[in-house]
Amino acid sequence: MPRTKLLALLALFVVGLVLAACAGGAPSAPAASTAPTSAPAAQGGAAAAPTSAPASQAAAPAAAGNVDLDFYYPVAVPGPITQILDKYAADFHKDNPNITVKPVLAGSYQDALTKIQTTVQGGGAPPGLAVLLSTDMWSLIDADAIIPLDQCISTIGGDAYLKDFFPAFMANSQAQGKTWGIPFQRSTPVLYYNKDAFKEAGLDPEKPPKNWDELASMAQKLTKKDANGQVTRWGVQIPSDGFPYWMFQGFAIEAGKNIVGDSPTEVYFNTPEVKRALEFWASLSTKYNVMPPGVIAWATTPNDFTAGKTAMMYHTTGSLTNVLKQAQFPVGVAFMPADKGYGAPTGGGNLYIFKNAPKEKQDAACKFIQFLTSPDRAAQWSIDTGYVATRASAYDTQAMKDLAVKQPQYLVAKDQLQYAQRELGTHAAPQLQQVLGNNIQAVIAGKKTADQAMQDGQAEADRILKQFK
Q1: pLDDT for the residue 272
Q2: How far apart are CA 150 and CA 281, in angstroms?
Q3: Shortest CA distance to 332 belongs to which of 219, 393, 270, 410?
C-alpha cells in the first residue's frame, strides 16, 4: 500500500478516536494509573510466575544482534501497570540478553493509537509491538498497519498454542482466515458488590442479583438516605462514559440480541431487544431511583465503590486487583445479571506487530509475545491486575489454583466467558462506538427516548459502514 494511503487511513482512524474522546464517548486513563507507586504482591500467597517461558515451548525466531523493541501499552484502570510491565521486560531480558524491551506508557487506548500515528506521519517507524483494543483490529487491517501473526504463531506452538486461548477472545482477534492479534490485556465487565452493605440491608451476601428484576429490587434496598432525604449510598452505579457502548453491550446480549454479528459491516442497534436493554439501564435512575442521574464517570466509579458511595457497580474485571486492595470491606464479584439469559461482551487489548517495523524487531516482538502469553506469565498477569488470563492452561498453574482457593473472585470473569460474545469490532469501529455511546448518553441524560436514540444510531452507523460494503 502506498505510504500516502497508509497515512491517510491512519489519520482518519485517529480522527475518529479524537472525536470520540471530545464527545465524552472514549476513555482517558485515570491519573492514578499513570503514576503508580508500587506493584502489589501476589494475591492470596500465590507463587510468583517463572521468569521465562516453559522449556517445552518451541523457540521463536532469534533476533540477529542487539535489538531494542519499543512496546507501547495503554492503561484504562487504576493500578501499577507500569511497574508490572517494566518488571516483565526486565525478566525477559535476563533470558534474552540481545533484546531490550522498552515499555512505553501511551496513556489511554486512544492515546496509544495517536502516538503511533504521529510517529508514522513524522517519518519514523512504528513500535515493533503494541497493546491496542481488540476492536481496533479491522481499522488496523484497513490501514495496512499490522501483519498477520500466523507465521509467528507457527514458531511458538502452532495450532496447539492458538487453541489454548479462550474462543470468546479469539472472536475479535481473527479475520480473513488469519490471526491478527494475540489476546493479552483482556476482560469482561462484571458485577462488584459490597457484602457488608448486603448484610446491613438484610440481603444474603452470598446471593448477588441473578437477573434484572433482582438487580432493581436489591438496589432499592441498598440505597441509603440521610434524615434530609439525600442519598448517602446508591444501590448501583454503571459508568456511562469511557466505554458506554461496552457496558451497554452486556445488557443487549442479555436481552437476546448482540449489537454486532459476524460481519464487520453490520450492526444491530435498532432492534426491540436492544431498545429494551437501553430502557432498563436508564430506568435504574429514572424509575427505580437507585443510580445517580446523568452520565456516570468510568474513572471514578471504582473509587465510589471502594469508598462506600455505591453498594454495587458494573466495571471491568481489570479493576479487580486494585478494588480488592483498596476496599475496606469484603468484595463480592458476580456475573452481570441476566434477562433472557446471561451475557457479556469481551473487551480489552490484543498484542499487535506492526508492518513497517524492521524484520528484526518483528521477530523480537514475536519472542516477547511468547513470553507474555506463556501459561505462568498469563497467570501472573491476571494475579497482578485482575484481567482474565487469556489461556485455559494458565488456570492449571499452581499460582492460579492457589489463588482460586483464597480469592475465587478471580475466576468469575473467566467463568462468564461461556456467555460472552464478540465486542463491537467492525470497520470504522471507533466511529461506531462513538455514535452508539453518544446515543446511550442521550438516553441516560433524558434527552432522547431509547427508540429515537437507536433509530438515530442505526442510521448513522449504516452511513459510516456503507463505504465498506
Answers
A1: 98
A2: 41
A3: 410
Tell me the average pLDDT across 268-296.
Answer: 98
Q: Residue 31 above 80 pLDDT? A: no
Say if CB 143 and CB 13 are below 8 A apart. yes
pLDDT at 18 over 90: no
Contact present, 183 and 346 (Cβ < 8 Å): no
Length of the chain: 469
Dihedral sign from CA coordinates of 322, 326, 330, 331 = negative
Q: 462 near 46, Cβ under 8 Å? A: no
Which H or E run contains 3?
helix 3-22
End-to-end, the C-alpha distance of the chain in Å comes to: 20
Element (H, E) at 332: strand 331-334
User: pLDDT digit string (tens) for 318-337?
Assistant: 999 999 999 999 999 999 99
Cβ proximity of 325 and 32 under 8 Å: no
- Stretch 401-416: mean pLDDT, rounded? 96
The answer on pLDDT for 393 being more than 90 is yes
| Grid cell of 55 as nine digits | 522449556
Residue pLDDT, tens place only, 223-260: 999 999 999 999 999 999 989 999 999 999 999 999 99
Closest CA to 462 of 428, 425, 423, 421: 428
Give the cell for residue 125. Answer: 517507524
What is the DSSP secondary-structure string of 168-219? HHHTTTEETTEE--EEEEEE-EEEEEEHHHHHHTT--TT----BHHHHHHHH
Q: Within 10 Å of residue 355's Cβ, how many Cβ atoms?
A: 16
| Cα–Cα dist 317/330, whole Å | 16
* Average pLDDT score over the chain: 88
CA 386 to mean position of chain CA atoms: 11
DSSP state of 469: -
